[in-house]
């Protein structure tokens, strides 16, 4: 029986390149980290190589090289994907392709002194999403969603009549963009967990910025009123996300929401009590609340035994 | 290869969009053609491992001290008079008029407005700007423009001319979208 299991595992490992032992899993993590570091290093190499020679090239040659590089790298990614099952090399090549496309539009804007436009984020976002869906990879998907959210934010700021490259003070469009990505995640199939976690993270960061008055707000309230409103909203949203995530085993969503809930709760406590309460009483109350949270999270933990979506 | 055409199409379409915009900007007679004196700009090499060259405009005094009425006119033109609720009113896009004043070794920002046409009726050298409100005691009293972009890429063959030592003169052209390019260097 045990020989049969070993043979089946060996066959599955050979066919699908899966990890069947703990040590294989550790090596896979090492490979993922190495491919990410390698990807970042290659991205830097592409930028620096172009900067080294672009002054010696005529403008048409510069444009041709900038346009051809991401196209050739995408074709290279397709070539690699057909020859490996784990897609480590493919991810690395595609990360460089994305960097080459960023370089492409950034340099074109620099060469021709084009007025800054958020359209670059739209193009980069769509490009990364197209790569993610074609190659079934999560990293390009996260990059694509972040770019699309930045684009939505910039468009909302421009629509309100402000300069999008100026001080991105108004974070409410990011909150809306995060909510849209989260909603899209409900029907995103295999990528559902990635959509939900990216959307939730963006929404929580926006609410945190608004609750700490780092950001300006469209709400017709005083600065203190805006901070209070977003601290309470933050706690409600994170509690809802925990409630939604537990029965569906969305570990990433529940973890992010739990961390967010703690941060919003402490922000609210500091805002409400720090100034007038004796500091030792405040610290004591925070300690007691922390014990209560520990007990609550201990109860939640066993319900999340499976379902690591990200 | 079924869906591989999509990322490739996005790259090509984005490049085409940028290049069509550039062509539209540079087609026809330029909005402005300005010869910069040696004191109006610096030639900047972009680093030891960067062969690119650009000129950087020297922007001197920005909007000489205005009268109260002049400041309020600009505040109103940019719509900041309705936004005194918060001290964090964000920057707005606009245009600035640059002038070469005798005896001053830099360009002076003489005026700014939300639209370029208003300025073009009064000034030749109009460029894009980002405008920030300037405050005093909770009230917006004027706006401060930040010229954007201040640097213009120097393509071949002009980069060879500007790399040589000596005093240089550069002619900047501004097209229909108020985006500059170097149309002569000597």
Give the topology, please.
The complex is a heterodimer of chains A (310) and B (186).
Chain A: H1 2-16, H2 22-53, H3 59-81, H4 88-111, H5 119-135, H6 138-159, H7 172-185, H8 192-211, H9 223-245, H10 251-273, H11 279-300
Chain B: H1 5-26, E1 32-36, E2 41-45, E3 53-57, E4 59-62, H2 68-77, E5 92-100, E6 107-113, H3 116-120, E7 125-136, E8 139-147, E9 151-153, H4 158-163, E10 170-174, E11 180-185
Structural class of chain A: mainly alpha
Radius of gyration of chain A: 24 Å
Beta-strand percentage range of chain B: 35-45%
Mean pLDDT metric of chain B: 84
Shape assignment of chain A: flat
Give the biggest sheet of chain A.
none
- What is the domain tally of chain B? 1
N-end to C-end Cα span of chain A: 34 Å
**Strand order across the largest sheet of chain B:** 4-6-5-7-8
Number of strands of chain A: 0
* β-sheet strand percentage of chain A: under 5%
Low-pLDDT segments, ≥5 res of chain B: none
Question: Structural class of the secondary structure composition of chain B?
Answer: alpha+beta
Number of helices of chain A: 11
Poorly predicted tracts of residues of chain A: 306-310
């Amino acid at each position: 029986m045990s020989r049969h299991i070993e043979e089946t595992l060996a066959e599955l490992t050979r066919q699908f390149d899966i990890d069947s032992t703990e040590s294989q899993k550790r090596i896979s993590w090492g490979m993922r980290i190495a491919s990410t570091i390698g990807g970042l290093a290659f991205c830097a190499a592409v930028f620096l190589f172009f900067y080294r020679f672009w002054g010696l090239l005529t403008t048409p040659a510069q444009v041709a090289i900038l346009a051809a590089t991401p196209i050739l790298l995408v074709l290279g990614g397709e070539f690699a994907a057909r020859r490996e099952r784990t897609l480590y090399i493919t991810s690395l090549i595609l990360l460089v392709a994305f960097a080459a496309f960023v370089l492409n539009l950034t340099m074109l804007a620099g060469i021709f002194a084009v007025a800054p436009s958020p359209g670059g984020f739209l193009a980069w976002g769509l490009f990364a999403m197209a790569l993610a869906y074609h190659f079934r990879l999560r990293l390009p998907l996260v990059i694509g969603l972040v770019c699309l959210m930045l684009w939505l934010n910039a468009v909302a700021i421009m629509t309100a009549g402000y300069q999008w490259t100026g001080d991105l003070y108004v974070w409410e469009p990011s909150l809306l963009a995060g909510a849209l990505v989260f909603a899209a995640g409900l029907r995103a199939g295999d990528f559902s967990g990635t959509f939900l976690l990216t959307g939730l993270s963006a929404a929580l960061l926006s609410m945190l910025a608004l609750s700490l008055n780092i950001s300006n707000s469209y709400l017709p309230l005083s600065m203190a009123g805006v901070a209070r409103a977003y601290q309470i909203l933050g706690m409600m949203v994170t509690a809802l996300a925990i409630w939604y995530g537990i029965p569906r085993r969305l570990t990433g969503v529940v973890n992010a929401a739990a961390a967010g809930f703690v941060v919003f709760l402490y922000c609210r406590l500091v805002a409400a009590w720090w100034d007038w309460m004796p500091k030792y009483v405040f610290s004591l109350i925070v300690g007691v609340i922390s014990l209560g949270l520990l007990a609550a999270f201990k109860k939640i933990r066993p319900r999340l035994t499976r379902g690591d979506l990200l | 290869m079924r869906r591989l055409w999509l990322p490739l199409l996005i790259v090509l379409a984005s490049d085409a969009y940028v290049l069509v915009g550039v062509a539209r900007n540079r087609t026809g007679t330029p909005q402005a053609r300005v010869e910069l004196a040696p004191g109006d700009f610096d030639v900047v090499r972009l680093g030891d491992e960067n062969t690119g060259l650009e000129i950087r405009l020297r922007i001197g005094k920005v909007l000489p001290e205005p009268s109260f009425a002049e400041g309020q006119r600009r505040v109103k033109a940019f719509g900041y008079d309705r936004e005194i609720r918060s001290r964090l009113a964000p920057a707005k896009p606009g245009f600035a008029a640059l002038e070469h004043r005798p005896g001053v070794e830099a360009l002076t920002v003489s005026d700014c407005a939300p639209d370029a046409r208003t300025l073009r009726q009064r000034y030749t050298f109009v460029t894009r700007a980002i405008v920030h409100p300037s405050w005093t005691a909770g009230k917006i009293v004027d706006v401060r423009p930040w010229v954007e972009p201040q640097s213009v890429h120097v393509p071949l063959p002009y980069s060879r001319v500007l790399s040589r030592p000596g005093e240089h003169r550069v002619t900047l052209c501004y097209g229909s979208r108020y985006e500059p390019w170097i149309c002569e260097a000597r």
